[in-house]
Amino acid sequence: MDGFDAQDVIADEAALRALFPPVSPLAKVKSLPALDRHARDFIGRSPFVCLGTQGGDGTADVSPRGDAPGFVEVLGDRLLAIPDRPGNNRLDSLSNILANPRVGLLFMVPGFDETLRVNGQARLVRAPELLERMAVNGRAPRLAVVVAVEEVFLHCAKAFRRSKLWDPAARQDRSEMPSLSKMILEQTTGAPEDAGEMEKIDAGLEEAYRKSMY
Questions:
Q1: Which burial class, exposed, middle or buried, applies to 118 when counting CB atoms under 10 A from its CB (0-12, 13-18, 19+)?
Q2: pTM as predicted
Q3: Cys staple from 106: which of 50, 61, 114, 151, with CB 3.0 to 4.6 Å?
């Protein structure tokens, strides 16, 4: 179906493991069952986390979540909470959690090439005292994603160094691609031909950002 010959497809773990050297002793033991002081510090510095979920039908999804550093609240050694800020209301991640509570988190800190990975099980929580602590500009989130931590480990810098993600010299010119509004319109109902009309739509999106961040 995808054009690959059967002999070129890795179909079992034995075949996969045969392609790689054995895992290093340190990599074997670095996985922790709870948040230690280093993991807590990393989360406290992080303004951005990717939330990986999977629906009941097996469909996978990864959602970016961002706010001021430390926006993810550590509630205990094995518990953390992510405020659910306003988005597009598709609710993909939240619906997936209802169907399958297992989640994966990837925390990033600007300037750090290392990342922190956290795996566990999530619930959607509306506890008023928690949501009030997460309020910004007087606006509390409707709910929080509370994760019971099962596995924690730091991830090495290779991916970030290969990608040069934080290197100013590697920054790309955003103007080389159309605006978000134009791309989505072209993918769906069609973008207006008139440049002035498109500018108004883009300005409307920026105004919506300003009004609905929280």
A1: buried
A2: 0.94
A3: 50
